[in-house]
């Protein structure tokens, strides 16, 4: 990891020392990405463990989208030390549904075999949309469309799930519900997750580890082991610490922080 290892000391239950990790599903070593004379990613090192939930924070232009595109396989990385699983899926801020296909066919896109509809139906039931199989995308609410996008990603059982600000366009209550849904799906399927977000509260509420990207390098990280729903006692101080790495801007307006109660994991 680049720069500081900013492990939080804010709460005794929130932080543990480094322990041996299983073989990572993602590994980048000294990764560089340039566009003409502009260096967007500069010598970045990153590992993501199986089943780990990471949130990536960074100001506009810090390289978040470039990194996500690399992990998604959308950009070429010849000659670089990059290891990513072949099984991966992306959920974008825009659900990107095909308006001329009903919901279940959007979820089944690219699936092979005679059971594609059955698999799509099962995935839609998981996200609470089993009653909307034959609906047209233009009849869906924003939250419903994002749930379809989640179903489309998870039906493939990816080892790596990339979430590119998928809740940014949703109202606060819908975001809260989507947080709950994403966590329940993550616990069931256990992919490694990289969530790109501008929202510090969202990062703290959802992630095992929060990374801060600046000028193409990871400049800080915080590992959080306190159960989700029990992080309020140290959240304000951690939020201030993360914002200091982001330049002090508050990106959390309108978000319902830490709404999810759960048993200790």
UniProtKB/TrEMBL annotation:
Domain ABC transporter: 26-240
Coiled coil, from the record: none
Gene Ontology MF terms: ATP binding; ATP hydrolysis activity
Keywords noted in UniProt: ATP-binding, Cell membrane, Membrane, Nucleotide-binding, Translocase, Transport
Pfam families in UniProt: ABC_tran
Family indicated by similarity: Belongs to the ABC transporter superfamily.
Protein name (database record): ABC transporter ATP-binding protein
Source species: Sphingobium terrigena
Species classification: Bacteria, Pseudomonadati, Pseudomonadota, Alphaproteobacteria, Sphingomonadales
